[in-house]
Amino acid sequence: MAELSTIARPYAEALFAAALDDKAGLDSWSALVSELAQIAGQDDVREALTDPRLNAAQRIDLFSGLVKSPLSDTARNFVSLLVENNRILLLPEIATQFEALKNQREGTALAQITSAFDLSDQQVAELVAGLEKKFGLKLKPAVTTDPALIGGVRVTVGDQVLDTSVQARLTRMRDALVA
C-alpha cells in the first residue's frame, strides 16, 4: 500500500490552492482543516465512517453534522470528495501537509522543541531567536518536556534535527568508545 503522505499530498495541495482563492483566508481554512482532522481522528468517528451499512450520502451527513464550524460549499465539496473516494480517514495527514504548505508560503516553520526540563517563556523566546538566525526562517515553537534527555534540548525543524541533549552526547561518546 502506498504511504499515507503520498496519498494525502494531492488532496492537501488541491485544498491549499482552493484556500488561496477563497476570501476567507488561509488562517480560517487552517483552523477548519485542523477541526476536520481532529474529528476524523476520533476512534468512534473512524469506526462509523467505515461502517459498510452506511452509503456515501449518509457518511457525508454524519461527518458534516459533527463539524461545529459552518462549512462553505467548497469545504462541503471537499468532504464529499474524500468520503466518495474513501479518503476521509486521511484528514489528519492532509491537515499536516496543508499546514506545511501554509508555513512554506508564509516563510515560517514549526520548531518541535523538546527539553529535559520545563522552559520559561523567556527561555523559549531566546532559544527561538537563536534558531531563527540559524535556520533563516520565522519559527513557531511547540515545546514539550522529556526527562529522558537528562539535560539540553532537541529541536526539529522540518527534516533537520539539532540535538544538544546530554542523552545524545552520551550516545555519541558510547559510539566513539565502541568503534
From TrEMBL:
<comment type="function">
    <text>F(1)F(0) ATP synthase produces ATP from ADP in the presence of a proton or sodium gradient. F-type ATPases consist of two structural domains, F(1) containing the extramembraneous catalytic core and F(0) containing the membrane proton channel, linked together by a central stalk and a peripheral stalk. During catalysis, ATP synthesis in the catalytic domain of F(1) is coupled via a rotary mechanism of the central stalk subunits to proton translocation.</text>
</comment>
<keyword id="KW-0472">Membrane</keyword>
<dbReference type="GO" id="GO:0045259">
    <property type="term" value="C:proton-transporting ATP synthase complex"/>
</dbReference>
<keyword id="KW-1003">Cell membrane</keyword>
<keyword id="KW-0139">CF(1)</keyword>
<keyword id="KW-0066">ATP synthesis</keyword>
<dbReference type="GO" id="GO:0005886">
    <property type="term" value="C:plasma membrane"/>
</dbReference>
<dbReference type="GO" id="GO:0046933">
    <property type="term" value="F:proton-transporting ATP synthase activity, rotational mechanism"/>
</dbReference>
<keyword id="KW-0813">Transport</keyword>
<dbReference type="InterPro" id="IPR000711">
    <property type="entry name" value="ATPase_OSCP/dsu"/>
</dbReference>
<dbReference type="Pfam" id="PF00213">
    <property type="entry name" value="OSCP"/>
</dbReference>
<comment type="similarity">
    <text>Belongs to the ATPase delta chain family.</text>
</comment>
<protein>
    <recommendedName>
        <fullName>ATP synthase subunit delta</fullName>
    </recommendedName>
</protein>
<keyword id="KW-0406">Ion transport</keyword>
<comment type="function">
    <text>This protein is part of the stalk that links CF(0) to CF(1). It either transmits conformational changes from CF(0) to CF(1) or is implicated in proton conduction.</text>
</comment>
<dbReference type="InterPro" id="IPR026015">
    <property type="entry name" value="ATP_synth_OSCP/delta_N_sf"/>
</dbReference>
<keyword id="KW-0375">Hydrogen ion transport</keyword>
